[in-house]
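User: For my dataset I need records formatted as: sequence, then structure tokens, nothing else. Please produce one.
Assistant:
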Amino acid sequence: MDTWIEATAGNRNNLLPENVPWKAIRTLLSDCIYGGKIDNEFDQRLLSSFLEKLFVPESFERDFSLVSQATLGGHTQPIKMPEGIRRDQFLAWVEALSDQNSPDWLGLPNNAERVLLASAAHDLVINLLKMQQLDEDEELAYSDGEVKGEVVEGRPAWMRAMEAHTSAWLAGLPNTLQPLRRTVENIKDPLYRFFEREVNFGLKLLQSVRLDLEDVAAITSGGKKQTNHHRALIQQLNKGMIPASWLRYKVPSSCSVAAWMTDFAQRVKQLTKVSQAVSGNSAASLKTVTVWMGGLFNPEAFVTATRQCVAQANSWSLEELSLDVTVADETDQPSFDDCSFAVEGLKLSGAVCRGNMLAISSEISTPLHLTRLRWIRNTEGKSSSLIQLPVYLNSSRANLLFTVDLPLAAGQRKTDFHERGVAIIASTALN
């Protein structure tokens, strides 16, 4: 940086702020010093947003705002650039700041900390359940029909509790899942092939879960001997952990088995609706099914299948197609054609969508009533009023499904959306 400044200044002692090589400095910070550690496109976008706002010629002015609106001592006011040129003056300015930094200093809403606290509390409860090993392990470590621990009605407490849980879980799951009706015509449809894989996957997992629960129910009622597999299974269920043999699709690491069972039952229910739609009609009826995307085992493949479906029906290449997204209000019903697909259950984090226009909101998340995914041919470039948002599988934001472009409401700035990390979440049922 010294080399750049000296080369730009030449033999002059002073350099005008607008002559500082700002672009080179921003590139050094974004691509080398900090950017080299970033592997997420939207994290990189956030960093670039901060750099483009702070490293500008206006930063030499006394009234330049580092933060336009910050909460200080219960009042909202901007944080101005410190006056001074020496290191000790800048340190004194830092020391004078409040010890408690509000999230709005980083462009986040003030209630953003509630998300962190709720997540920390959820993880704490899950870890406490997993740590309850002493009593359960002692009660499970029995032989020759002798059980340690409190015994009521001839059975220990864990048996009675596990029997109640397994009965409730089995009652919430259907006995089976009808595979999709396969015909010569149906198998040609990319959407049918996707849902066939989904239903077959769900059927196998449903059979495995029901068999394990029925075995546990038989053991807790005293009619079946347990094996090592059953002993490990019961230990995990007692601690609220999801058995490893059930974890065949992505879920948050902090998810409890009770939440997983409720979510899995809803997934099977959706697949049952899909199976019924095909049984009475052809594969074309799948286009009319409103899909809970977060409840699919492989939601990325669903987006790919819809694209292939439209390309095949219209003899277009996949490269020609781009995704057009419309979010309907609760009182609206968007129109659907052969290139459109209905999706529900999405949630918008950090913003609100009204009239298919995005605006910054203080709400942590807002539900999207009904979303239309429509594949259209690329005819022109993207409008500057559109902002690209990521669609994540769940609130952990570990799995990016795809991206969507949505229009901004009047007066909204893209940098505010970048700093707030506005995103669409496909499923919040397991968080």
